[in-house]
Design a protein that fits this description.
This is NAD(P)/FAD-dependent oxidoreductase. The protein is of the alpha/beta class. The protein folds into 2 domains: 18-153 and 351-503, FAD/NAD(P)-binding domain (3-Layer(bba) Sandwich), CATH 3.50.50.60; 162-346, FAD/NAD(P)-binding domain, CATH 3.50.50. The protein contains 14 helices and 20 strands. It has helices at residues 28-39, 57-60, 92-105, 193-202, 229-237, 239-261, 263-280, 284-289, 307-311, 369-373, 406-427, 436-450, 454-457, 479-486, and strands at 18-24, 45-49, 112-114, 118-124, 129-134, 137-146, 168-171, 185-189, 208-212, 219-220, 302-303, 316-319, 323-326, 330-333, 338-340, 343-346, 361-362, 391-393, 429-434, 494-498. Strands 1, 2, 3, 4, 5, 6, 17 and 18 form an 8-stranded mixed β-sheet that branches. The protein has a 5-stranded parallel β-sheet with strand order 7-16-8-9-12, with no helix packed on it. Helix 1 crosses helix 11 (406-427), helix 6 (239-261) packs across helix 7 (263-280) and helix 11 runs parallel beside helix 14 (479-486). The longest helix is centred in the middle third of the chain and has 23 residues, at 239-261. The termini are far apart.
Length: 508
């Protein structure tokens, strides 16, 4: 049974005039940054959140069947363990409850500012501070940390006639729980991770479900199950056991990264996925439509126990012809077929390589991040950008993963930011930004490594690729290699900016 939802205490709406650190976003990354700041003895910060509560993607995504596709033990902070996960793969509401618990456990409420959308952030070369304009006022900050994530802005494709559709239109990240689906004719657009969770969750109650598939996904069984009470009690009473299980899962999933770096290994792994497909889908015609023609791993692999079985049910049809237009009460595909629907659900993903906030962050030379990136986000270590002093991007370019928990990447980034803050304090300096030559060398090496991966050689086009065709989303290696490279701040790789004369401490 789902526990009663705890209410976060009321937060202040007043903005401080100035803070040492301004954090944008109250999802995993933003809350993790806040916790680590407090643990490091820094309490001069604020968390700016445009919504009315914490949670990020786990607040915004409330569609039926939502769950994590990484084991619960890995999908939580190492510095904020949760021994009470109910399942091997946590449902979305439970992850949201965990984040709300983190707010209470680490007393973050005084630092939260809900309803404060960041409208712009500009670096002031004179004061060597960030000027931040929000929907509720302005403030300045020595350090500006973006924690908006890669999955915050949903994409709905531009379909001819969509505006005249008389039924209900929903994106997976903008779900309307008040719209009853029982007995309806539902069209689902997309076959990614969200659609693979939505389809089996709603299939038993809808009258008819049409899945509009552009590209089939590789599907592997998940093996999800409840975590027993005795196991949870053991995790709670003997933390070392929980840590050992977490480490075991981490090492197991790390091994999957080898396949992404060497596509021939994944081609061998496809045999298992194909055998699973044959066992579940006995209809040869349907099985053919669901068989991918690209190397496994080129697109995100779906892990699900119930997605493929749901597609075999009598009230489900898988349509592979491209979408041509939307009418008032139907979708027409390229083969001329008319599919009557009264509800359209888009599981079409997000804008991971075009951070909307990047259009509103202005650096040292007056250009925005979006202008500097020109359609292909690039950052040193995925965290900092030359020309943008004291700007730190959590879950920035090339820090997402295809094989394990992004929390592991995130914690290395948090350590890097803390290292930079300690360095600034020790030197009495104003700011740091990556050396342009160091950043360029890092990007060249990153792109060279990426060219050998399955994402470049697997024969598909995925959301990992940006407008230029470059993979600016994923890290081409293990989380261990990322941690070794990122967690320690190395001053020699950065340019240090001294404090302006007006801000130097007065001599006694």
């Amino acid at each position: 049974m789902r526990p009663r939802r705890q209410e976060v205490p009321p937060v202040s709406s007043r903005l401080p005039q100035h803070v040492r650190v301004a954090i944008v976003g109250a999802g995993f990354a933003g809350l993790g940054m806040a916790i680590r700041l407090k643990q490091d003895g820094i309490d001069d910060f604020v968390i700016l959140e445009r919504a009315a509560e914490v949670g990020g993607v786990w607040r915004d995504n409330v569609y039926p069947g939502i769950a994590c596709d990484v084991q619960s033990l890995l999908y939580s902070f190492s510095f904020a363990p949760n021994p009470g996960w109910s399942r091997v793969y946590s449902p979305g509401w439970e992850i949201q409850a965990y984040l709300r618990d983190c707010v209470e456990r680490f007393q973050l409420t005084p630092f939260l500012r809900f309803g404060h959308a960041v409208l712009s952030a500009k670096w002031d070369p004179a004061t060597r501070r960030w000027g931040v304009e929000t929907s509720q006022g302005t403030l300045t900050a020595d350090v500006f940390v973006t924690a908006v994530g890669a999955l915050s802005e949903p994409i709905i494709p531009h379909l001819p006639g969509l505006e005249r559709f008389r039924g209900k239109v929903m994106h997976s990240a903008r779900w309307d729980p008040g719209h009853a689906l029982a007995g309806r004719n539902v069209g689902v657009v997309g076959t990614g991770a969200s659609a693979a969770q939505i389809v089996p969750a709603i299939q038993p109650e809808v009258g008819r479900l049409v899945l509009f598939q552009r590209t089939p996904a590789w599907v592997l069984p998940r093996g999800d199950k409840p975590i027993s009470g005795p196991r949870r009690a053991l995790y709670r009473r003997v933390p070392g056991v929980r840590w050992l299980f977490r480490e075991g899962l981490r090492l197991l999933r790390e091994a999957l990264a080898v396949g992404f770096q060497h596509p021939w290994i994944l081609r061998l792994g496809q045999r298992f996925a194909l055998r699973h497909l044959r066992q579940v889908v006995t209809d040869p015609a349907l099985r053919d439509r669901l068989t991918p023609r690209y190397t496994m791993g080129c697109k995100r692999v779906i892990v699900s126990d119930d997605y493929l079985p749901a597609l075999t049910r009598p009230n489900v049809e898988v349509v592979t012809s491209p979408l041509r237009e939307v009418r008032e009460d139907a979708v027409v595909t390229g083969d001329g077929a008319v599919h009557p629907v009264d509800t359209l659900i888009f599981g079409t993903g997000f804008q991971p390589t075009d951070m909307p906030l990047g259009h509103h962050i202005q650096g040292r030379e007056g250009r925005t991040l979006a202008q500097v990136w020109a359609g292909s986000p690039k950052a040193y270590l995925g965290i900092t950008v030359s020309g943008f002093p004291n700007l730190f991007l959590l879950q920035g370019p090339n820090t997402n993963l295809g094989h394990t928990s992004v929390i592991l990447m995130m914690e290395a980034q948090l350590d890097h930011v803390l290292g930079a803050l300690r360095y600034l304090d020790a030197r009495g300096a104003a700011a740091v930004e990556p050396d342009p030559g160091v950043q360029d060398a890092f990007i060249r090496d990153l792109d060279a490594r990426m060219s050998r991966t399955v994402w470049s050689q697997g024969g598909c086009r995925s959301w990992y690729l940006d407008a230029t065709g470059r993979n600016s989303a994923l890290w081409p290696g293990t989380t261990s290699s990322f941690r070794r490279r990122v967690e320690h701040f190395e001053p020699s790789e950065y340019v240090t900016l001294p404090r302006p004369v007006s801000r130097l401490p007065a001599r006694s």
